[in-house]
Amino acid sequence: MDAPTSAAAEQRQPDFGRMFEMVTSFWVARAVHAGTVLGLPDHVAERPRTSAELAALTGADPRSLHRLLRALAGVGVLSVDEQGRYTTTALGDTLRTDIPGSLASFVQLELGAAHHGTWGLLPDAVRTGEPVFEAASGHPIWEYFERTPAMADHLGKAMTGLTAMVADAVLEVFDFSSYGKIVDVGGGEGGFLSAILGAHPEASGTVFDLPHVVANGRTRIADAGLADRCELIGGSFFEKVPEGGDLYTMKWVLHDWNDESSIEILKSVRRVMPEDGRLLVVDTVVPEGGDFSPSKIIDLNMMVLSGGQERTAEEFRALLDAAGFTLTRILPTASPSSVIEAIPTR
Q: Is 65 helix (H, G, I), strand (E, B) or coil?
């Protein structure tokens, strides 16, 4: 027997228009990806160009490229004048490769064949409780990046671009001035620590990540003028984390891993941290209730990719407690990420 229908449900009209927009939004994303792969934002940033000029520059079919350009202009990524010349917009500028914080590599990473194909297996991830990146790409996620240098390069650049956005937000809510030595665990190519050290010239720091990752950060650290205050160390945070920090930071690390692995990472930090040290975890915090939050969508991304997750405040508290830390406060930022502060349990 069918469940009874409430009076409110009987009066409610299905929102077909909004659902159509939600389902087809990936068409726009794919158009943005195609335009980024073809380098259109870079080409039209130099000067306005017609579709014929852009076809010659990119080697694309003129008619097909015209249709792509028309669509990108329709969603505000490009603009077109009365002479049919395309140029970039404030929105399209985010996809230029010559600007700080560019999202061009992020687009190529998120919408590349492996990553996009992984999302196509979301039902399998929900059914099994296991990540599906390997099924989509042929390799576990971190092995995939080791085997595909081009995508590893996009990963590094994407994280640098996204880090530029979140670093300023973190600096606005947390005072780093009382810390002399900062160790950024899983710090990638050093973008986050560079921002902190740039704002606090009295501090020094260490970027710790896999050897092939930190190798890509040496030039970045040197270019930022921080070579004398920032060292880069390669290794595994499952084995040993560098000693000597009075503040340890982890940005977008724990969300890559399940609870068991996250506790092991945290224990590695706890073993080397002084009793008066402090830990900052920068991740999204999933709010309670049914309202929309970017964290709930990011959480699905971690589920299909690596088996990681975004966590609620209580889940962070339990995770930290299991590793010998006490959660002291959570600071929201202007970005989707929050700052979760913890100290060694005494």
A: helix
**Rounded to whole angstroms, how far apart are CA atoms 104 and 312?**
30
| Residue 69 host element (H or E) | helix 62-74
- Which of 64, 57, 6 shows the shortest CA–CA distance to 34? 64
24 vs 22: CA distance, rounded Å: 6
Alpha-carbon distance of 177 to 154, in angstroms, equals: 33
Residue 96, classified by CB atoms within 10 Å of its CB into exposed (0-12), middle (13-18) or buried (19+), is: buried
Residues annotated as catalytic (active site), given as ranges: 255
Contact predicate 60/54, CB 8 Å: yes
User: What does the DSSP assignment read for 209-240?
Assistant: E-HHHHHTTHHHHHHTT-TTTEEEEE--TTT-
In 262-279, which positions are buried (b, 16+ CB within 10 angstroms) versus exposed (e)?
bbebbebbbebbeeebbb
Closest by CA to 137, choosing from 119, 118, 121, is 118
What is the pTM (predicted TM-score) of this model? Answer: 0.88
pLDDT digits (tens, 9 = 90+) for 2-36: 555 666 677 889 999 999 999 999 999 999 999 99
